[in-house]
Amino acid sequence: RAYVEKAGLAQLRLVLVPGGLHFRKNAELILHAWPAIQEADPDLRLVIINHSDPAYASRAANLGSRVHVLGFVPDDALRALYSAAQVVWFPSRYEGFGLPVLEAMACGTPVVTVRASSLPEIAGTAACLVAPDRPSAHVEAIRALLADDALRQELSARGRTRAALFTWTRAAAELKNHFDSLL
Q1: Where are the alpha helices (DSSP H) in the chain?
Q2: Are strands 87-90 and 14-17 parallel, antiparallel or unpaired?
């Protein structure tokens, strides 16, 4: 929590983008949709963490003081940011696994992500899934979550339950079963 306070983000409404700004993380969509999301809630902040492509980071900086490009953060700060956010936005075009979605759900933070690559499998019914190429769908989903406390609480509970399914013990057992089936 000290990290959130030190970053000047305590007591603010946050939308967290945990993947940085890159082409594969759908930076164009984020930069295009953010002004429409912010328009409905001028006090809302966009917090982008992890490494970003310098060209996208520069464009984000031009969106104003309510956009915070923080770069890499340590694990304890990451957990604090997930917990402080009202919504985690992860519109990645393709992922091998989608760990940020799982991390956010484990922290009880509602997620807006896309129907692409592994993300629907990770999120299940515990996140808002939208098209990866429709900024208006992202704006609508995030605005709906920000406006509806009951929906946020429902996705928070579903997310925690979903995240609890992903354990190293379960993954190892499933992998062993696959290997055993090959013998």
Answers
A1: 2-6, 27-40, 54-61, 75-84, 99-106, 119-123, 135-147, 149-164, 168-182
A2: parallel
108 touches 85 (CB < 8 A): no
Burial classification of residue 121, based on how many CB atoms lie within 10 Å of its CB (0-12 exposed, 13-18 middle, 19 or more buried): exposed
pTM: 0.93
Distance CA 68, CA 6 (A): 13
Per-residue pLDDT tens digits for 101-141: 999 999 999 999 999 999 999 999 999 999 999 999 999 99
For the stretch 15-73, pLDDT in tens is: 999 999 999 999 999 999 999 999 988 889 999 999 999 999 999 999 999 999 999 99
Mode of pairing for the β-strands spanning 67-71 and 45-49: parallel
Tally of CA atoms within 13 A in the half-sphere of 81 that contains its CB? 30
Task: Compute the distance between CA of residue 43 and CA of residue 45 in angstroms, rounded to an integer.
Answer: 7
Show the CA angle centred on residue 65, arms to residues 15 and 23, nearest 5°.
Answer: 55
